[in-house]
Design a protein that fits this description.
homotetramer; 397 residues; alpha+beta; Butyryl-Coa Dehydrogenase, subunit A, domain 1; Butyryl-CoA Dehydrogenase, subunit A, domain 2; Butyryl-CoA Dehydrogenase, subunit A, domain 3; four-stranded mixed beta sheet; 13 helices; globular
């Protein structure tokens, strides 16, 4: 049963949950009221506590100072961490760093690991991933304009990217750029290249204003520009022209992480909703929870959240056993299904809170606006529905 | 992982599926075009084949000639059988007999087992369950008018019931009647009493016309009347005034059976939809499956069906381990969730078939109209949503 | 204001409504329990009463014995008639006859009018319209296989049609057949030809079993075959190769009629639901109508029904003023919008009735199963959504 | 036909639309990027232009310098103004001032009109309305804690309010306070009292952080406190203890204004969506608009927006003719129906924009987060559904 959790893992999950409640929840009001940057000193301290507790970087192998968890184990951790907007950051498994660590671990050279991966695993630096371009629809990932042309021992990169999450304050970017733009195989045109943020010609134009906030640090999405930006060819990550293969690799587990994080958000929102409706009175002695419409939301949320968790864990287990390519259909299904549940749960939780739900007294409004993107990033609902359907229909032709 | 199926069970499931495809699917056109009664001779023959194959009555203990399956095992069988409207009947695990067998097994006296249970397990007779009354809303199961008054060694029963499924042609009914109508405890007012169909004063008024069909035999729902209907008190099933306790007992597993049967229906409908859209052309060479709206239905159905199965099997496993009372919340959640998915899958499958979907060339239209009741019988959506929510909210007060 | 109804029309509507309630509603139980054919003698008598009351054929010009109503006026009549399944038939404005009358009026020769139209307007005969073919998706109406080849003074027709509504007992069919199959213009390949039902080579294969019922007469949908079926060329209706133009013409007003009829069904279902929930008790003194979920259905139904009526009447008024081609976008919008509302209202009405809603004690179950087709016939939801969107998007290119 | 607009009004609407496009749209990027206060100088200038064009305050009688529009006329203006977030402000018909003007006009004394109303109509001051209290659910409007106790010629007010929109920078508040807290009639316990913002004891605690923004000026929602706040009794607005009657009065037309403003937002969002999908390419030459899922959103939005407008205008016309109490059912229906359409249209428009939809490059994200409140303020969806249903069901008892 995928929902079965061995005792050892249960203890870890409980420790993480307790830590969040005691140490992180109290910071949420500040998080919701201020720029993320202002919280860094306190979060740095919390990260040290996490290290001291032996809970650091659950997704990383023990050799890298992590807990060595399999995907299904980390998935359960991810749900717990998702219950606070700062959870993943404090345990150093925030996107996009978690994906960058993974790719560096599997495809980095020894030198790349030493220079880029090591400090990343220890939380000394942050990184970003520059793929999406404003000029091209994200639903067609092979349609890029950014190029990396060889010149001597260097690549010379030119291009325009946006939604480069966490570029602000990062130490380096992994950049997707065309290295063989005319290849017959659209999926073999691009490479992933490591570009330190201070490389001349690499410039953050601005942090995009997203849902009213430009954010900062890990909680920001930059528009960036590469103008004759020159890096040594040894910064190539993995084989040349294998950019999409590597991207695909990171996306499988990445979507599991996201889905479980969303379920964590759902669980927190659900808890807030339940706590609110049993205590908020419509008239003396008559709580909101006595109303049938509220009750129906509670039941519907619970069913959809149970369904989500079971499907994601089932997919994670299959991925652990058979690898990511074997579960592409399932990955597409959970991506759009859970993103939809997330939006519905947040919507009902806000509605149950009434005016309070619109305020930043709870994290609901933060998630409502920023996780609207869940149905867009890493493949829109529509892209995943079509992809899953095509895989399924092939079996009937 | 709940979806894991041991090899031995896999073989049984495969045998059942093959049998259905070879022996039962070909009878469907006849089933959809005629009264059920007309098919009985052929179905009797199929039942014998099932016995010969050693697949008879998978839900029954081996001592009763069954396969001795646990709930989670039978759940998986039920999904396979659900793929044809006649599946459960042919394997002798059709409602309401399956529930009656269970209750007789657990609560029947030796004599009751000999007289009523044994021929039922062997498929020699059928039975029915008379609970719902036209005068009272089913959502309040303790509000009954039918009474059983002691007189000498007998009960004298008076009352009016409907939706007594399968009364037509049954050998006996299990009747819910008030035996202590004034008890302070609404749940301790009624008893379950066995009433042979030929008992004087027990009369089938008519088979109700349901969605245009009065049906016959196991595929009918009767309105029945008890007028000074007299049975010996030894026909009491289980303790006196324990009618609701027994009813509750049968409903837990019963809802698992229904849910898995519905998933079987979904799987068949999904298969029919996929087969249709890849072969039906909008113009030469351009199949319906090339249309994005169709693709989105395929993906949404697949996700919801996966979610349904995982939730039901997860609940079944928990019920096997901890008993039915431990999973009442889950039972309510799956009851309304899966019934909703069933209706949506059938609706999309019909829409994808166009005009063909309205005809009785496929079983879709049969299920569309008769399984509309899935959201009503054994507790409406609304009853289950409210029940689940109340259980959940108690944890927050 | 489209909802404004002049006093004179109000009086007519009131007379029709009263007539339905007094004369037609009492026949509904019989209608729901039996073959339509059995009711014909009684319906014939009702038709005579309608004639005597001066309410016959409201859609027809006075010269043809009708009330001479404009589209918006007839739309309002159609809503009232829609409240009973037999309403339109009794007033001789049932599909497909109403469309056939219209097309004969506009495009028939004097002789065609004398032979076919006149008895049709007087209710002496019925007719049908043979367009859809089982081999081709209805969403591509120009893709037909039926041919009409000239031979001497005749057309020789060969082809296979289905969903020829009301063929059973009709006097003639209007048949869509290819007369110029190789034309560059797909919309100029077919003609409409009048074929008396007794023409040799024209055969009803069967009344299709639709949602469990083969029906009869006007309430049936036939599969028909043309094998070297020979009719004189004077039976051509309108210009040669103008079949689609004529079909398009009939469909505009036809969809208004359907939409208003559906709104009538909604109003009746809504009334039944309201009446039921205020009288059905959950426990003594506590009616179903006290439950918030029921209340939310009532409010949602009411809003959607109001929206539907306003949109359809607004479209009808524009069509009266500017002609059908000017409102194609609106026609597509109301077609899928109102069909969706119809299904939702019926679904909620059934759910509110509980088990009773599944029976044929009310007309709800009849409409639930047969009006499932509303989202399919005369263009599926999907066809209309795409058509409307394309029209809209053209304005932004 | 409610959609018919006399030529004179058409000209005004066209002038307003042109003004918005030329003068206000260009300010939107600034509006979306900065505090509202920063824009005030430029908006002041635009307001002067509006006055010069003779378009000022369309809702006000000519005697007050307005256009003297009836409700249905102003409704159409409100739709146009709603297309930009600043529209209503620039024409001086922003909430809550528009409601305050109305109430002062109908119920103010001559002196109140001179001191408070006149400068408000001329846009020299702003005002706010302090009703909602954080301690009590808004769905029970009569449950208040704020009191106004007579002391000499004064009222002494004590209480705590929030969501006092536009308090920041306002000249005065209209405050709802209990003046007869023990009345048997819950609706006759409170009065409306005018309280200048600079009255000692009246304090803005803070502008609430709502969806990540505290805002400023008219675009802010304050938490305020009254501590022994003393105002002369001549500041009573209307009769004593008539606070709810007056509140009810303002809410009828207020909801029409909101609904039409929301339709304006929908129209703008729809336009942005259509423009985006025809120009955004998935691959060279293949625009997003070629995708069936996008097309279905376009059609569904268009249908729902048409439905919304017709229902709101129909209600406005009836209110003009028969008064607000006659259309309470309709008001409730449009309130929840249109708020739902608003959310759906914005959601689809964002989804169609992909990542761009999350940014503040368009006003979509602003509306998405702030108009989430449309389903909450002025009565939640649930409050209105129940209210409408109860009115409807009364007719069936």
């Amino acid at each position: 049963m995928v929902t079965h959790t061995p005792e050892k893992l249960q203890i870890v999950l409980k420790s993480i949950e307790d830590f969040l409640k005691q140490e992180i929840y109290p910071l949420e009001k500040m998080f919701l009221a201020q720029d993320f940057e202002n919280l860094l000193p306190q979060l740095e301290q919390k990260r040290q506590q996490v290290k001291d507790l032996g809970l650091w970087a659950p997704h990383l192998p023990e050799a890298y100072g992590g807990l060595g968890f399999r995907l299904i184990e980390f998935a359960k951790v991810s749900e717990v961490l998702g219950q606070s907007p700062m959870g993943h950051y404090v345990f150093n498994c925030q996107a996009p760093d978690v994906g960058n660590m993974e790719i560096l671990m599997h495809h980095g050279t020894d030198e790349q690991k030493e220079v880029f991966l090591k400090p990343l695993t220890q939380g000394q630096i942050r990184s970003c991933f520059a793929m999406t371009e404003p000029e091209h629809a994200g639903s067609n990932p092979t349609w890029l304009s950014t190029t990396a042309v060889k010149d001597g021992d260097d690549y010379v990169i030119n291009g325009h990217k946006w939604f480069t999450t966490g570029a602000d304050g990062a130490a380096f970017a992994i950049v997707m750029a065309l290295t063989d733009p005319n290849s017959d195989q659209p999926h073999q045109r691009a490479s992933q290249i490591i570009v330190p943020m201070d490389t001349p010609g690499f410039k953050i134009i601005k942090n995009l204003s997203v849902m009213g906030e430009s954010g900062s640090g890990n909680f920001s999405h930059a528009e960036v520009m590469f103008e004759d930006c020159r890096v040594p060819q040894i910064n190539l990550l993995g084989p040349e022209n294998a950019g999409f293969v590597l991207a695909q690799e990171r996306l499988g587990p990445g979507r599991i992480h996201h889905c479980m994080r969303w379920i964590g958000i759902c669980e927190r929102a659900f808890k807030l909703m339940c706590q609110h409706v049993v205590s908020r009175e419509l008239s003396p002695g008559k709580p909101l929870s006595s109303r049938q419409l509220i009750q129906s939301w509670i039941a519907e949320c619970r069913a959809e959240m149970n369904a989500s968790r079971l499907m994601v864990l089932d997919t994670a287990e299959k991925m652990d056993q058979h690898g990511a390519p074997a579960v592409r259909e399932e990955i597409s299904l959970i991506k759009f299904y859970v993103a939809d549940v997330l939006q519905k749960v947040l919507d009902r939780a806000i509605q149950a809170h009434g005016a309070l739900g619109m305020t930043d007294e709870t994290p609901l409004a933060f998630w409502y606006r920023h996780e609207r993107a869940a149905r867009i990033y890493d493949g829109t609902d529509e892209v995943h529905k079509v992809a899953a359907a095509k895989k399924i229909l092939k079996r009937y032709v």
